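W.,

You were right to be curious about this one. When I first looked at the sequence I had no strong expectations either way, so I just let the prediction run and decided to look at it fresh. Below is the sequence, 270 residues in total, followed by the output.
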Amino acid sequence: MIHILLPAYNEALALPLLLDEIRRVEWRGDVYKVVVVDDGSTDGTVAACRARWEEMPLDVICHTRNLGLGSAMLTGLKHCVAKSGSGDVIVAMDADNTHSPTLIPQMIRAIKSGSDIVIASRYAVGGREIGLAPTRKVLSRGASVLLKVAFPIPGATDYTCGYRAYSGAILERGFDVYSDRLVEQKGFVCMAELLIKLGALGAIVSEVPLVLRYDLKGGRSKMRVTRTIAGYLKLVTINRPHTPGTVRARQTESLKPEWGVKGGERKKQD
């Protein structure tokens, strides 16, 4: 099963276009389901999803108020992992129609070939950005460079893009180790946080080139630049223990799992 996770906040215009593009993907026998997490939208995003319920497999999970991208990602990932097996694939995308779903089959093949995480990267050979403001380009590239120096993960060049495929197995392991602390950041920084924490568990990462079509975005950016910069700096300072290999080398108190797995049942750790 392929689970396509779309965290959405006020995307009533762009989301239907993206859903139509997902329907047109050549799935080649793969069964898929779209999971939209509506993060307290006020513009009719949920109604736009309901209009597609009879046309495609679609679940909608609603937050009663806007909690931020990180909370929407956590809600969606927990839902997908609960509904999936270790052999399933979870694909997360932005809901604003800037990510082309035509990359999904290639990302699925990479997961099936052994990758735990596949990043749709603007910085891989063949990737680029169209319509993105220069300040946003500098922020995204600068953040990725900073994070790669602080948290070097083999195979990763784009630490901030939200378009990724995850194996069900790596997300299951992530929740076993971190529980709900797998995603703690509330804003856009959550994507880097998630990659760093899974990278610390030894995740095998690969990339496919992404052409980011920001010119197709249906509305204004929801990113708060100052808050996002502060979030990246905080991530580098606070999450220093989450470097690749440290979780395997030593189980620090801050990383001690809230839950352990024994005999197929979850048992609270003392």
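Here's what jumped out at me. The radius of gyration is 18 Å. And, maybe more interesting for your project: The chain has one domain: 2-250.

Coffee later to discuss?

I.
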